[in-house]
Amino acid sequence: MSTIMTESRAFWEEVVRPALAGFPLDQMAAGFFGYGSDVLGLDDQYSIDHHWGLRVNILLPQALMDQVPALEAALEALPTHWRGRELGVMYSKTRGVTVASLEHHLLSTIGLDHPPATLAEWLSIPEEDVTHVVAGEVWHDPSGRFSAVRAALEAYYPEPVRLRRLAHWSRYFSGMGVYALKRAILRENWLYASTTFARSLRWGVQMAFLLDRQYYPYDKWLTVAFHRLPRMGPRLAAIVEEAPRLETPWARKLELLHQMSDILDQAMVEDGLIAPHPKYKVSDTSGYRLLEAAYAELIQKCPAEIQGLIPQWEQVHWESFHSGFVAQVDLADWRHMLVLEEE
Which end of the chain is more exposed for a tag (fewer CB within 10 A), N or C? Predict the structure, then answer.
């Protein structure tokens, strides 16, 4: 638990909650959640230059959002600092407190305003954004609505959804990754080699998270989260460390991805997700398309209703909200948030 999260809880209990005594506390969810490295306890000396400080996230049902102006007015008397800590500047008018509707928070992260109820709904959720719902702490949620969504997501994917996502990344890693990198090296197309190599490494790591039944996080937290994987982290650590180094030659990068293919494939065999098979040769022209064989096996195990559904894996819901916020922001405030100062 991060220090800033602990202190923010005390700030909620001692300052914010008493200030809101005249409002429908029984309908509020409050805690320290959403976006930011501090929610994961990964904030460091570089995290404090923007959107950092004591904070309380408050969610209200959309039907009660007409009370927000009065609620913000009640919080105007909050200090800029408390117990020596600065109150964070967030996506809200009130320093240290962000007020949003429950529905908006969920729709701008997972794209649903309720716990996922069908396989298709599960597949529609961007995996990177699950963290922004389940991470952090909820200190107050009498209605239980927000906590119910968190609990459903924390239980992890239904198995057909996990298989469909594994199939998706098997296809990408092999067909648009290893195969494409081999062709790029043969043609000395170094721009394409650079882009497809980086994507391939990411796709392989995403499969590792699925195999260990843990959600893949937002990319900037990937390294720490990857090394915490209980099974696949140790198996792939040497590859993930060596492959991206600038001094690692292209032929070696490709060989490391071939090794990653074998490790991921073997884990799926161990787990009974694909059938045991003989060792295959590496093609001189197409590389090692091993995981595309796994792709076919996996997708054929999926229910017909989701075989043709593509898992969502971009932060499209968050980007929609962010674009709307930036479209109305004061430009001077925006430059301040970006830490852009005149020379």
Answer: C
Positive or negative, the Cα torsion across 271, 273, 275, 281?
A: negative
10 Å Cβ neighbour count for 183?
16
Q: Kindly give the interhelix angle for 250-270 and 232-242, rounded to the nearest 10 degrees.
A: 170
Q: Name the token pair of 243.
A: 């492959």
Where do we find the tokens 């100062």?
A: 341
pLDDT in tens, 229-239: 999 999 999 99
H or E, element range at 138? strand 137-140
Q: Give the sign of the dihedral formed by CA 207, CA 212, CA 215, CA 217.
A: negative
Residue whose tokens read 């004591």: 54
Both tokens assigned to 143: 């209605």
CA torsion angle 273 275 278 280 (round to 10) = -50
Q: Phi first, then psi: give them for residue 81, nearest 5 degrees.
A: -135, 155
Tell the residue number behind the tokens 């904030």, with chain if given. Answer: 43
What is the spatial distance between Cα 280 and Cα 155, in angstroms, rounded to a whole number? 37
**pTM (2 d.p.):** 0.89
The domain locations on the chain are: 3-155+315-337, 159-307
Three-class secondary structure of residue 55 per DSSP: coil
Distance CA 271, CA 162 (A): 13
Distance CA 325, CA 66 (A): 19
* 3-class secondary-structure state, position 85: strand
SS3 310: coil
**Closest by CA position to 33, among listed 127, 117, 140, 124:** 140
Q: Which two tokens stand for residue 228?
A: 């915490």
Q: What is the pLDDT of residues 270-328, one digit of tens each?
A: 999 999 999 999 999 988 999 999 999 999 999 999 999 999 888 788 788 778 878 98
Share of the chain above pLDDT 70, in %: 94
Average pLDDT over residues 260-271: 98
DSSP string covering 88-108, please? PP-SSSSTTEEEEEHHHHHHT
